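Batch manifest, entry 17 of 40.
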Amino acid sequence: MVEKISLITLGCDKNLVDSELILGTLKKEGYSFTENIKEANVIIVNTCGFIKAAKEESLNTLKKIAAQKKNNKNVFLIAAGCLAKLLGEEIKNEIPEIDAIIGSGDLYKLPGIIKNRNRTIEISDHSHLIYYNEKDRILSDAVSANLKIAEGCDNCCSYCVIPRIKGKYKSRDMESIIREARYLVSKGVKEINIIAQDITFYGKDLYGKFSLSELLKRITEIPGDFWIRLLYAYPSYIDDQLIETIAESEKIVKYLDIPLQHVNDRILKLMGRKTSSREIKILFSKLRQTIPDIALRTTFIVGFPSEKKEDFEELKNFIWTYQIDRVGAFKYSKEEGTLAYHYRLHLSEKIKEQRYEELMKVQKLISKIINKRFIGKKLKVLIEGYINERNLFFGRSYRDSKNVDGVVFVKGNNIKIGEFVDVIIKEAYYYDLYGEKV
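Output type: structure tokens
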């Protein structure tokens, strides 16, 4: 009998890539898969350990499955990925029903562990290494795929546990990335999302220089009708060459995700960030001047230790003045093993929640104002699905990153999922748009 495996993925899009590789590797070993955990002989939870809420979600998921093992003791339960790497044996002590724990740098060992039913804890120091074969991936989305160009991070921000989990920055070899990009295009992928903890640092460790622009130029040379989207660009390393590359390429969408975390100089320094408020404003002005139609996305942390009301007001004023297209926010999470964990003047959860809601309320209004500017304009939309009850297709424009931004609802005939269509925008909502196929 062929064993069935169920894989649950939690956390970020980088985890999703790891899960796609896990599934592909296990498929080669002859395993089949099921989304119904009650049918599975082996259950793998690819965990997240980024912030407290993510850790709790991972642990609660493991506990839920562990409870179900009482009805089927033959199920082999594996905790894998980031939280497994971060906590290791602590997870086993808290949830003894777990059979194996595999850190994020040891995922390549999964086939042997499953085959031999090794009850083990595999937590090595190889979390920064990349074990990769693009043809081993089982793509979870036929239209949009993530292309991971590096692991780890050298920025060491005071609030972040990622360097502890993933290790120092490790760029993938450029040829392997180009090979994977070609493979994705050959599979019909229409959107390639360039991802890493920090894409702008790419190549510095491997080639002695920032090499993202060179990498992008080579990917744009691949024949085919596809988009390239850039996610998680650290502001310190966005140079003129990268801006020019984005501006000049027809395949790179005019969209850039730049996690700023804050704009107040004192808070930025406490966070261990390398940019000042002035440098951030110069960068955003330069991007808008060089690429007038660029959509800028960022994320902020509210309620950082010692954040004063006036610091928060400065943050609100910034997003209003610069009319940021897309903004996400996190409430500061006190994480053991980080420098900020030991800071004084931690704020209450009530204040964090109030500031979060206030910031997002301002951004909701900004988003509606910006969206209204597109009424009557034509946008190229990548169609991703169909809503039967509304008789509408939906997709995303260059302004919309998957799962975090808005969508464009599209009315029209002869529309196919996975294709680009030109759409005239007719209505604007807070985050979404509605239009008709040209």
